[in-house]
Model the fold of this input.
Amino acid sequence: MIRLLFTIIAGVLLGGVVHLVSVLALPRIATQDAYSRLTPMTKLNAVTPLALADPNNAPMPFMDPAFALAICRYDLSGGPLKLTVPVSQAYTSVSFYTRNEVAYYAINDRSAGRKVIELDLMTEAQHSELPEDEEITAADRLIIDSPTATGLIVLKALAPEPGLMPQAQASLAASRCTIQTEAPPPPKQPEPAPPLPAPAPRSKR
Amino acid sequence: MRLILITLLALALATVVGLGSTYMTATRGTDLGTLTIGAWTARPKSGTADIDPYSRASIVRSGELPIGTGDGIAFSATTDDKKKPLDGRCDVVVSGVTPPARFWTLTLLDRKGHLVANSLQRFGFTSQEIIRGSDGAFEIRVASRSRAGNWLPTGGIERYALMLRLYDTPVGVATRTQRDAPMPTISTVACP
Done:
């Protein structure tokens, strides 16, 4: 009898360990997370507009139907990413997510303070490789460190009324996210180019 | 023989208890770091890098992308102010004022986060398209049949959730009470 009691206690204690491990492991093993859902319908290192949220086919749950959405799925292994998003009339925001959907940074048009939101996204290693003087001259350049090499950038533009949706979509369609193929680190040069119709090597700086 | 049996029993129990509790917390969510005002609940930390492991687990399970803190905050309600579950066949009134924000949207979703089909293609309201009273307060009627004023159709589904998303708002991690964030009231007025 006592032995059975011990078994149950041991089982429950072990169950606690299993619970903690599985909760921590879930972000790594999940197959239906937002990144996996968006991977087949988005291009790498380019802005892909998403279809409007619809009862029958929404790419993700809990989407806001009042927003036009575009996704830039990035991979920084080929170099830092440059993002430009023109601000729409009502409200525009840019949110950054890691590969495991941790929202590490978000900015809206008012805090960006300009007509165009311009950002440089790079890994911490790429940031520390930046020449120092350049960082000072580029004081108006907003640099964001990505904790992971891959992730998602979500561009959102609000349509305050349904009739303004085409405008919101048009402003997102004018946004760009491209890898900056830079000359400075020569050993990294022969890396495979990102699979996109590369907009001609931009090595002017 | 007995020892093997007992070990197997302990291991089986551990698997059931461990994975079962993980499943429960990932689908239902936990009360860790939630901000509750009236019937509305938000998780301000979900939009930051120091999100707790339970919220991360439930986010990857559902496949959503949480709203970043620099963008806004999402409040959801599945019951009215008297803790009665929101029923799509009843008339529910959402009224009052919202916390300070540049824009807000109110959306009706089913319990899994999908929009609910209706002939009007109306899935929610934004702060700009709402009709307000002279004092700035508003009243939204959530019902299956058409109503005068701000009518949000439920499609007649049994259980739904309301989501109030505030964009460009001071409401966030530091918000604690109703005084910082006056949320609209939700009341069920009539049930067939």
In short: Strands of chain B lie at 35-37, 40-42, 72-77, 91-96, 103-110, 124-126, 138-143, 150-153, 160-167, 185-190. Chain B has a mean pLDDT of 90.
